[in-house]
Amino acid sequence: MTSSPETRPFGNSPATCGYSRVLELISNKWTALVMYTLRDGSVRYGEMGRRIDGISKKMLTQTVRKLERDGLVRRHVTPTVPPTVDYSLTPLGETLLQPMKELRQWARVNYPHVEAARADYDLAHGGDSQPTAE
């Protein structure tokens, strides 16, 4: 007897795995930087671009639109000439900051171990940094 995704104790499908769905929200390299930029309140579009090193206007626009669509960021337009556009975290977006902070802390503590493991692996496998499926 096979089990359906609803009866499995752990979801092994990206469509049903809660972790996969959350990682989909924050996995873009710019998402965390945008969210951290907004953590202290409303920020104008241009200021946000200046605060995030290396982000292009195109990537900033795509990132904030995605976050707005996901309900994590609110866009507010003030009808001035030219229009003033501010972004802020929604209450839902604010709830995601704590887990992101914990993940950032984990990375600070443990990422050097990941780098060391990669170097050890590469040495043991002749510099082949691409693991093969067996």
From TrEMBL:
What's an example of a GO molecular-function annotation for this chain? DNA binding
Gene3D superfamilies hit by this protein: Winged helix-like DNA-binding domain superfamily/Winged helix DNA-binding domain (1.10.10.10)
Keyword line = DNA-binding, Transcription, Transcription regulation
Ranges for the HTH hxlR-type domain?
Answer: 17-115
What Pfam families is this protein classified in?
HxlR
Answer whether the UniProt record assigns the keyword Chaperone to this protein: no
Q: Which superkingdom?
A: Bacteria
Name of the molecule in the record? HxlR family transcriptional regulator
Its lineage opens with: Bacteria, Bacillati, Bacillota, Bacilli, Bacillales
